[in-house]
Amino acid sequence: MFPYRGYAGKCLYVDLTSGKIETREYDKALAENYLGGNGFGTRLLWENVAPEVDALAPENLLIFSTGPLCGTIVPNPGRMEVIGKSPLTGIYGDANTGGFLGPEFKFAGWDAVVITGQSPRPVYLAIADNQVELRDASHLWGLTTSQTENAIRQTWGDPLVKTATIGPAGENLVRFAGIQITPQRSAARCGLGAVMGSKRLKAIAVRGHGPIRVADPYRLHKLAIALHQRLRANPIFPAVHASGTPGIVSLMDALGRFPTQNFRMGSFPYVDHINIDALRARAFVRDLACFGCPVACDKLYRVPDGPYAETALRSVEYETLNALGACIWNADLDALLAANRLCDELGLDTISAGRVISFAMELWDEEILNLDDTGGLALYWGDMDTVLPLLRMIAYREGFGNLLAEGVRRAAQTIGRGAERYAMHVKGMEIAAQDGRAQKSMGLAHVTSTRGADHLKAFPVIDETGYPDEGRRRYGEQYLPDIVQPLATKYKAFLVKDGEDFGAVVDSVGMCKSGGTFVLAEIYWPDIAAALEAATAMEMPVERLQRIGERIYNLQRCYNALHGITRADDKLPSRFSEEASPSGNAKGQTIDIEPMLEEYYQLRGWDAETGWPTAEKLRELGLEDAIERLQR
Amino acid sequence: MHLEAIAEKCTGCRICENFCSVKHEGAIWPERARIRILAETDSGPFTPNVCRQCEDAACAAACPVEAITKDQATGAWVVNDDECIGCESCVEACPYHAIFFDAESGKAFKCDLCGGEPECVAICPFGAVQKVP
After folding, report:
1. Do A294 and B13 touch (CB under 8 A)?
2. How far apart are CA A425 and CA A451, in angstroms?
3. Which helix (H) or strand (E) segment is A131 a member of?
4. Element (H or E) spanning A195, and its range?
């Protein structure tokens, strides 16, 4: 019997090739060494998906994985992970989502669903508590994400069914297709929607009626109340609640870290058209929250009139306001919201979708692309009459869209003629709305992230603005003032490493990086360790938890090492070191990664030449099997 | 005392359901929560649905064995498990769908105002459920 509480204690293994569905007890050693969520998926990928397996081959795994605190009463327990090899980067891939799906898995009695193989025909996986079956999805193939969700709910006859769906983009193997999660959330990055499409799995639908039992409900209750109270008393809680991530648009713009025209600039002259004030005045309907979240950073927006009237959507984020706004030079908020909604319906990651378009627009501007290349599309900055149809062309892989559906790295290679210079990616992953020139730790975070360019692995937020309060609360006085200064490089390797290890734990227990752990900087190692003890009855001193975070992150790096990733790949596009940022607080700044990276490898115990974890470090983390595999 | 829902303050987070079930069942178990969020769509509008602790309670009136009685100290109508015969007459009678049936134990269950300190009122971050004296 699985000994720990907080977990459902069992997983589903589904082989889509044979249609076989198997129930397995949750692996005790895995829980002890990797917790769940992100760590669980990392270990499974490491053990089962060899370097030679293509991300879109049946042998790749697609893992939906919750953690032991997911669905409980700690604040923001609605998060779950999707893990698989990424068709965009060809290396370790994961995507995290909020919403209500993760908890529903656990109410249905499952910690994780591990998918392998490829179905001969479109199917969806229906999980009604203990009743699990593959159902025909031929009639759903081709539908958008919300159409799919609605159709499944109608057939089921229960509006509380939660789903993970792909749209046309996932079906057509767009390399940055995401997975849409109830309610209008996305497991967006790394192209895992294309992995789902390659398996001909249109959706997973879940309804659970059971309990999540914890080891010591009295103690967990006491801890949870204290955490809720601390969040509500946090000085920036009101702002995060009121505005969500769009609240930082104007601030980031002033700092010169709001990528504009494909990172040519860091400030957008029309930012007032797409910031939180514009959004609120134009389209605010109501505050919304993910499961169990007291922050409620989500909002429902609806365009009231005009050509995009009645466009209604939630999960409008800072990133999308940049990717489909400033970065493509678009100041038309209504059209931006329509494009955001369209990406959700088609199942496209808004960040990468926006970036492939800003990449193409800059190439057009630089006269590297012409009408012959684009099939007659003129790609002028900010032209939303072109962008909206182009998003469809990407999702359906039509004409020029077929090229962009490959992501900027592959598209640049195909185009040639110096296009690589304008491809803003690290390891094949398009860079989000974070500019290392304006925040040095973010530049380091992009190159050390295990899923390619990414702000969310290390998520260095305390040095975004230079305000010392959060830095003091989290790290004490000793690292001030450098650690909170965006342009300083001192202590940033430490900040990034700590963030990566802590983030791996947050993503493995099922909590949120926006609602208290990183944003608000309120919940930290000791809080999660205590909550885990109360929920699971595992002994969890802080040192053990830190070791788990480090183990997970090192194993992801090892997995990438098997795929040929070395220090040479830990680099930013040349733009960031060669072109000075022209605006804001960052004016005149470039970024030199190397000194920070050197320090980072030292802190990590990684070899400075290869960038691989040393045998000594791996032994210390109990990853002896990785030593062997890396030597081969 | 009874509870009142302020629907426009509800974000649909279900924290109330979760804490309610921990308080009464010792597990996170929305299907056993005494308070339920009603949602017109996934994105609202939402209404926390709570027992009104009616003056003339239809549930108590419908009970053939008088298992639902008023706690004079709190004003809550409370199901007496020893008396309840599991006939579900109360569930059918309640016009607000605020009393439920547990098929496992064969008993009805409902909001008891947590003995005077309702968990949902204490935990709701935005005051969408409030105590009315």
Report:
1. yes
2. 11
3. strand A131-136
4. helix A192-198
Nearest to B18 among A184, A225, A292 (CB): A292
A591 touches chain B (CB under 8 A): no
Measured between beta carbons, which residues in chain A are less than 8 angstroms from residue B36?
none
The pLDDT score that the predictor gives to residue A584 is 87
The string over A254-266, giving b where at least 16 C-beta atoms fall within 10 Å of a residue's C-beta and e elsewhere, is: bbbbbbbbbbbbb
Task: Report pLDDT digits (tens) over B68-91.
Answer: 999 999 999 999 999 999 999 999
> Given strand A162-165, what is the order of strands in its sheet?
A131-136, A123-128, A201-207, A162-165, A179-181, A185-187
Q: What is the ipTM of this complex?
A: 0.98
- A212 vs B12: CB contact, 8 Å cut-off? no
- Residue range A440-521+541-631 forms a domain whose CATH class is mainly alpha
**Residue segments in chain A with a per-residue pLDDT below the cut of 50:** none
Q: What is the DSSP letter of A517?
A: I
Nearest-CB residue to A288 (from B21, B32, B43) = B43
Q: Are A535 and A5 in contact (CB under 8 A)?
A: yes
Q: Is the pLDDT of residue B108 over 90?
A: yes
Q: How far is residue B5 from each of residues B15, B30, B32, measured CA to CA in Å?
A: 14, 18, 19
Which residues in chain B have their CB less than 8 angstroms from residue A214's CB?
27-28
User: B97: which 2 tokens?
Assistant: 């769908």
Whether residue A290 lies within 8 A of chain B, CB to CB, comes out as: yes
CATH class of domain segment(s) A10-207: alpha beta
Residue A211 sits at the chain B interface (C-beta within 8 Å): yes
**DSSP assignment letter at A130:** T
Tokens, residue A190: 């790394």
Q: Do A288 and B44 make contact, defined as CB atoms within 8 angstroms?
A: yes
Residues of chain A contacting residue B23, judged by C-beta atoms under 8 Å apart:
221
- Delimiting residues of CATH 1.10.569.10 domain(s) in chain A: 235-426
Q: d(Cα A165, Cα A202) in Å, to the nearest integer?
A: 6
Where does CATH 1.10.599.10 sit in chain A? 440-521+541-631
| In chain A, residues 308-367 whose CB comes closer than 8 Å to chain B | 312, 314
Kindly state whether A128 is in contact with chain B, defined as any CB-CB distance less than 8 angstroms: no
pLDDT digits (tens, 9 = 90+) for B53-65: 999 999 999 999 9
Residue A466: per-residue pLDDT = 77
Q: How far is A252 from chain B (nearest CA, A)?
A: 27
Give residue A561's pLDDT.
98
A502-520 residue pLDDT tens: 999 999 999 999 989 999 9
Record the tokens describing residue A378, joined without a space: 């003129």
Q: What is the pLDDT of residue A302?
A: 98
**Pair of tokens at residue A446:** 């992009």
Residue ranges, CATH 3.60.9.10, chain A: 10-207
Domains present along chain B, CATH in parentheses:
1-50+115-133 (3.30.70), 53-110 (3.30.70.20)
The encoded tokens of residue A369 equal 């692309």
The token pair that represents B20 in the structure block = 């309610």
Long-range contacts from A244-248, C-beta under 8 angstroms, 24+ separation:
A244/A276, A244/A297, A244/A298, A244/A299, A244/A316, A244/A317, A245/A297, A245/A317, A245/A318, A245/A319, A245/A514, A246/A275, A246/A276, A246/A279, A246/A316, A246/A317, A246/A318, A246/A321, A247/A276, A247/A318, A248/A318, A248/A464
| Substitution target from A107, A241, A287 for chain B, most B beta carbons within 10 A | A287
CA angle B6, B12, B16 (to 5 degrees): 75
Least CB-CB distance to B13: which of A220, A291, A314? A291
Pick among 1.10.1060.10, 2.60.34.30, 1.10.569.10, 3.90.660.20: CATH of A235-426: 1.10.569.10
A422 at interface of B, judged by CB pairs closer than 8 A: no
Give pLDDT, residue A583. Answer: 87
Q: Which two tokens stand for residue A490?
A: 């001192």
